[in-house]
Amino acid sequence: MRGLRVHAKTTSHFAPPIHHAWLRYSSSNWPCQSFVVVPCQTGASTPQIWERILVRTLTIAAFLCVSLFAVTVLGQHTLDIVESNGLSENRIDLVIMGDGYTSGEQQDFASDAQNAIDHLFGKRPSKQYREFFNIVTISTISNESGADHPATSEYVDTFYDCAYDCAGLGHLICCDYSTILSVAGTEYPAYDVALLLVNDQQYGGSGGPVAIASTSPLSSDIPFHESGHVFAGLGDEYDSAYPGYVCEDIYPNISFTADRNDLKWNYWVDEDTPLPTPESAAVNNQEPVGAYEGACYETVGLFRPVYECVMRSLNNDFCAVCTEQMVLSYYGFVEPVDTYSPAQDSHVGVYGDSIDFFVEAVEPTPNTLAYTWDLDGEIVSWSDSADLEFLFSCVDQGEHQLTVTVSDLTNMVMVDPGNLMTMSVSWTVTRTDDGPVENCDDQDAGGDACLDGGYCPGKSGCGCHAIQARRTLFSSLLPLIYL
Ligand SMILES: [Zn+2]
After folding, report:
1. DSSP, res 143
2. What CATH number is associated with residue 422?
3. Domain termination site, one of 180, 214, 232
4. Which of 1, 155, 229, 364 is deepest in the core (most CB within 10 A)?
5. What's the pLDDT tens digit per position in 323-375?
6. How far apart are alpha carbons 268 and 64 in whole angstroms?
7. Which residues have CB less than 5 Å away from ligand 1 (the ion)?
8. Rounded distance from Cα 310 to ligand 1 centre (Å)
9. For residue 237, how far is its CA from the centre of ligand 1 (angstroms)?
10. How many A from CA of 473 to the centre of ligand 1?
11. pTM of the model
12. Does some domain include residue 27?
């Protein structure tokens, strides 16, 4: 049937992006030392990967219910909608939780959660793609403040029973994961990713079924690092040894070779950059992209893209290679188009009739989306925006296929092998009369200039486009798109 919505994607956008984590770790037997990871305070870290927890059972009605009642109190848990950017079925739902906050410290949790959000979305690419997220907090009252410190025999009664010194590592925090996941799933079933803040000023955190970070200022970049594992399946780029762990060739940012032909990210490497790349060639932490030896817990034989990336040490940005994978991972959750109008796929009209076609896309900031409209496979020259006023006088009698293609042209992604960042919507339009056909794409046809600098098709019936303001807005964004 012609005119149905066309999806460029061929795979479910809800498929877990890091299959290796699912394979390696069973949620039924989480040995703390096998999945926990948190960079050492010096910048070197121990291994880890925390699984993306995927639960998408919330219906649209339930979402609206939660939105209408932004605060829900159940027992000692309180759910707050911090940021709602769209329906959960086409957004990444991030839930931020807390442990070791007493009833008198609930405002501290709200403040700490906001700080974590500001930090997490303060750097690329989450900064540009914040619109792709819904953010909620679940505050929980603990009987006592802080966390356990077994090494010094300090114990407190907290709801999620978080404790430092996990696996004998002072900065490693482990908690009661089953309770965390149970509360998250009960309070906010749509959540995709959970972050737990531990109300303790000692540096520490971990990855695993949830990302965990203490409220020490030194821990503030831990969630950012962990997001690289959970979203994009990135490997650790540091080279400090992790006894008993053998790096596998499964990470997009770790290479077992420096050969230019076989380097996974060779399209990011300039021709004049030597491979392998000596650290002396680095002009700064992240330039040039090359193949620097030392990664994934090995000092030799494994290569990383840049000198320093947040996957190697905290308080850095993601490198270009990791950034690209992060953006692609967002599009594993979120399709470019939220809605479109009209919803019906078939439309009939005669000379003088018109229909406004429109797509509502999920826009990065700045907006790097491009819209291409084509009619029967030919680019329509009279629209490059999210809407198009279709004029039946511009087509001949019969059935036609109108398609809009939305593509994210961000320069943070060079290769999109799954075509995740492009989506098309199609309609069938049928003109039933055999009246005259206006020349709607030829400026020599005698039309008038539009206020937005575009072109009005011929005067006899076509007229200027009805939605000038919106077109002007999108036209002004074109220079950004092509940066
Ligand atoms: Zn990196």
Report:
1. S
2. 2.60.40.10
3. 232
4. 229
5. 999 999 999 999 999 999 999 999 999 999 999 999 999 999 999 999 999 99
6. 43
7. 253, 309, 311, 319, 322
8. 6
9. 7
10. 35
11. 0.77
12. no
